């Protein structure tokens, strides 16, 4: 059987749904929060020199930006083709072969690919004050911009880490010269850039939207992050909870001609959005429940009101069987409970070894989403909870806060 024939066979057997393998991503900074349900012995499975596994990427076609030792497909999702043999192929191959059959006409015509993904990130300490490039600036280095949304699932957050507050932007009273002084001190002393910012205590079961260009320092809380298909960062804080961030983290995502130009690096900041007085009013995201249309089914939008990405939380009551219908393709992650998802058995993992098959991650084609996925909660006691992340082609996503 050729690769193309196998792809179409797997797609047909799954009735338009693909079963994905877990994609674990190490980072050379911070330290793992150890809440990703990975076996305690496997957080350094890629080698001590690569750092701990702090992230799991979901429905990803993106390669991680992890330095010179990054694997060729690091960060990229694989489709499980045979559970008995663990045979698998890149999700990217399925997207390229199936095209609109998988993604629908709108995404294929506009982007020619699946342009988004999601992740769970899990750091015991807070992350550094940093920003993600806008599309315009990212294109200068051959990448895409990275707007992103956050949702804080209760199921992964029995422990909130060492600093459950997120800094967003700068206090509106901050001057550009104060920020420039922090950049000039990056290699000299602790620049304490978060002294110019404002922090918000994280509320589980809620979220935020963060536009590209807005500087932020995320909390030590496990975060479900739907985002655009990219991994570009500029880190402007040089010491984070005692850990020194090397100079290259400030300049890695600058064009060669701008790496020594602090004015150009400063210009990556979206100043207007980073200093707006009504930041919480505009970018905080409380869940938006949908009207209940089936017994045992509850749905709520948890990422919405932006032009890039969206996410929904779905809860199926114990013993219930429902049909989940959506207007666009998506990646689904089971975060609690067990049951069936279309033709697949599904379950939230208790503990996974590195390389294990999980039953919690699926990519649903647009056609299958519109037809509806039959979901059955086979537990008598526990709800089945699923997170879905979409790109920007679902007309049902709320447009306003």
TrEMBL record:
It comes from Candidatus Choladousia intestinavium. This is Mannose-6-phosphate isomerase. SUPFAM superfamilies: RmlC-like cupins.
